[in-house]
Amino acid sequence: MSAMSPWDLLALPPLPEEPLRRLLAPLGDRVTVRVPPARDRAALLASLAEAEIVLGDWTALMALDAEAVAAAPRLAFVQQPSVGVDGHDLSALAAAGVPLANTAGVSAVAVSEWCLAAALSLSRKLAEADAAVRAGHWPQQSLQPRELHGRQVGIVGFGPIGAACARLFRAFGCQVSYWTRTPREEPGYQELEPLLSTSDVVVVVIALSDETRGLIDPRRLKQGALLVNAARGGVVDQAALVGALTGGHLGGAALDVFHIEPLPDGDPLRELDGVLLSPHVAGVTPESTGRLLTATMANLTAALDGREVENVINGISPIIRRKFKGSPTA
After folding, report:
1. Residue closest to 14 by CA, chosen among 79, 67, 76, 61
2. What is the widest separation between alpha-carbon atoms in the chain?
3. Distance set, CA 285 to CA 69, 105, 107 (Å)
4. Could you report the per-residue pLDDT of 92-121, keeping only the tens digit for each?
5. What local confidence, expressed as pLDDT, does residue 79 receive?
6. Is the CA virtual torsion 46, 52, 55, 61 positive or negative?
7. 283-294 pLDDT, tens per residue?
8. What's phi and psi for 176, nearest 5 deg?
9. Are 282 and 230 in contact (CB under 8 A)?
């Protein structure tokens, strides 16, 4: 195979094939774009044999676990068109010498705005007020909304989204602290347990991993606290959350993410008062989508040009090196 032949790019996003090809058209004849014949496991594994670049699937249905990585001997680069990398086996990709990049920061504005709006909605009881007025009631004295100003806000996770949340909540006059997996010598940093037990509002924006799965037990939060989760459903113990809400331990919750998505029929969260439910759209705005597309295409172009790609998260060199058939690394 000539070094000048097109790269084989396997595109996994859940989009119709023609629009997907149009999005990738600026890469020109330097790539041959393929999509799996079906969105299932067998089609994914079969399609990986020749893949050199994989454009990932943000739903995690077509994620690259260890078996998938082993089925892709020529794979040189994975670009995930999202911040989350759920389902990808970072260790397997690293062992194979394959850098995995995400689009860190593109949704920071959108998600932080959602977190602030959700906290305001819970604190001011906007959903309850709306439902009451629509039902013909007028609970002007009994609703008892609270101001957000002056309240203690604890942020779990302090990447670009957590930092953006901190700026917004501080602008509203809140006292903000945060926890991240890497301790910091900064005034705002606080260990997780005291953060959970003292915050009036806990905002969860940390990535899901083996380390953070089930990290937040809502029963450890302060009595009457509000919980806002815009991370992943698996970060919060959902059964404990239902118990904390039904038992009155929490003052309310705003959830953009769930253990199972869409939220199934019969899930108790759908019947609870004081819970704001959202269909995993905190980061979905035209503006954030534009930034995502720009970041994705910039990284794919850099990979083809031999320049460093950005936001590699599994510790592999950001210079993408092709694995030719018959080479020792192929």
Report:
1. 61
2. 77
3. 32, 14, 8
4. 999 999 999 999 999 999 999 999 999 999
5. 98
6. positive
7. 999 999 999 999
8. -110, 130
9. yes
Return the closest-CA partner of residue 231 out of 181, 286, 157, 163: 157
**Is 1 a residue whose pLDDT tops 50?**
no
Packing angle of the helix pair 286-305, 17-24 (nearest 10 deg): 60
Mean pLDDT to the nearest integer, 143-147: 95
Q: Which tokens belong to 208?
A: 């899901």
Q: How far is CA 210 from CA 178, 234, 252, in A?
A: 20, 10, 27
How confident is the model over 32-71, as pLDDT tens digits?
Answer: 999 999 999 999 999 999 999 999 999 889 999 999 999 9
- Residue 52 corresponds to which amino acid? E
Structure tokens at 276: 């704001």
* Residue in the block written with tokens 């809502």: 218
Q: Using alpha carbons only, give the angle 188, 194, 197 rounded to the nearest 5 degrees.
A: 120
Catalytic positions are 232, 261, 280
This prediction's pTM: 0.89
Q: How many residues does the chain have?
A: 330
Q: What are phi and psi of 152, to 5 degrees?
A: -85, 120
- The confidence band for 86, taking pLDDT boundaries of 50, 70 and 90, is confident
Q: How confident is the model at residue 326 (pLDDT cuts 50, 70, 90)?
A: low
| Token pair recorded at residue 303 | 């990979």
